[in-house]
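Box 3.1 A note on notation
Throughout this textbook, protein chains are presented in two layers. The first layer is the amino acid sequence; the second is a token string describing backbone geometry. Keep the layers aligned when reading.
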Amino acid sequence: MKSQWRKQEAERMVRSYARKGVNRDLALRVYTTRLLGRDPRLVLHGGGNTSVKTTMKDVLGKPVDVLCVKGSGWDMGDIEPRGLPALRLSELHKLRNLDVLSDEEMVNYQRACLLDSTSPNPSVETLLHAFLPQKYVDHTHSTAVLAITDQPDGAALCREVFGNRVALVPYVMPGFALAKKAAEVFESSGNVDGLVLLKHGIFTFGESACEAYERMTSLVSLAELRLRRKRRKVFKSSRIPSRVARIVDVAPILRGQLAEPANGDDADWRRTILEFRTSKPIRNYVDGQDLSRYSQVGVVTPDHTIRTKNWPLILPAPAADDLASYSREVKKRVDRYVRRYHGYFARHNGKREEAKVELDPYPRVILIQGLGLFGAGKSVKEARVAADIAENTVEVITDAEAIGRYRPVNEADMFDIEYWTLEQAKLGKGAELPFSRQVVVVTGGGSGIGAATARAFAAGAAAVAVLDRDGTSAQRTAEAIGQGAIGIVCDVTDRSSVRRAFDRICKTFGGIDIVVSNAGAAWQGSIGTVSDQVLRESFELNFFAHQTVAQNAVRVMSTQGTGGALLFNASKQAVNPGKDFGPYGLPKATTLFLARQYALEYGELGITANAVNADRVHTGLFKGGLLEERAAARGLSVDQYLRGSNLLKREVRAEDVAKAFVDLALSRKTTAAVMTVDGGNIEAALR
């Protein structure tokens, strides 16, 4: 591991932050914290922290010795000074005299020591940083160091690798007890560059930011060198079927089996978002004959357990020609996993003075032989975090097995972390938004009603796929949404294009729950003279494309077995035709009945099918003078056409139509319905 310290970069950051009133010590702390946080071999999703001891002024202008330490919730890779809250150091030192201190007391006391009460909670390892005397202290969960320490003889290996440059701290759960133990080990060890916390991570320190950081890279390099020596080949491969099913066909099966009815109601499911990963190292790992041994021992560092559970679900390679049997096998193994988790919880919860409330028992990592691995979570972000940690685990266990035998902390210690109040607080306990855990597809999502609809579902925490013939517009909408949304170029009149788009969505998110079939365009002409070509073109987009999209949707939803929602943009033309607008209204009327047919035939699978009947929404549909022409056809000005001719005298906007789609998606016991969004048009009212 090479040092990334660059003096000119560091000084540039010092000057930049000086203009904002940030002192040199803290600016350099930010610089090296980012260097550490941007290397996944050192820090992964909160798995580390840093600090600096410096002087700041309190509200009275009096200089105070403080500890600036990483705040909870901040990512080390892009941390800012405010992500390193300052605490009065002398007050923290007073705690060293105590024999015991509960986690709740520690957190409360630390908050009382903050210079700024609005700061984030300081790291749970704040006291460890405070009790060490050096100015700069760095902590990471280096993959190389973990591969060395996660061994039956981890302490002996550490002495071989690091010699007297580090002192070894036996595993102790993070908090006050670990802080005291680490300080005692340091004080009795003489002059060392760092502390290795067995089966946990590594600390380095120094009187300058550069010294602490480069001690980290130097010690990690020693571990990496050891992993390259005396190494043996690991993971002899299992027999894999000659024809393995595609991931796009397997993902919806898995996603369906990982779902459970919410509140006992099978109209509402607690689903999961999936993130697939594969590579040569991953395949070498998941295809190994001894996978059921080395993958089930536990997490490589204890804090991973709150994001991935203690062990992954293992699934066999899926044969391409028998997915029905594979679905049954997945269900059997998921059920077995859940029973195992219940047993694990009961076994350890009974030994605690304070009883815990059991978390959900479903896996966060799934290993599939012949394919790769999945991370699972309630959002795209959580699924990616689980997948990142799973990849990190593959690397650590591969290295550990190559030089010895992988053995992390024991199950009881993992339980303590998984059900630790302070760690649980990191994940947040707020109520989930209405479309959390759900995948939404919007066609024609690059602009107008489609873009507004994509934004509306994303606001409810959905994972959104934006489809549009204009790939640039689709991507622009997805980027504006964020939250892992994807933009896909898709011509809905091309069956192969639609199939490719739905396959990509399944590969990206694991499946599909809600489809808004919105793409459309308007053709005009007198019905008695319009050409067949114009009429057929309109039917291709305004009817057959809806059928193609719906067919692909029910294919995936049926595989998942957790219901779903089909939503069609029908238009008021379906029930109230306009003069010279037949080429547009006829296929829209057919689409209205298409929705009802899907409601009739797929209701028993829990799939709802509803339509939105919108009118006079000023979007790209009316480009090229069409808006003016439609207004003129009714003898109205544009303003009268958009606003003055409806009962409410209000213009209908794209966001109003989007809200209707959202409302119908939330109405899980409503199907074959048509919701009108037109400001009030009696002629278009359904009987």
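The radius of gyration is 30 Å. DSSP finds 25 helices and 20 strands in the chain.
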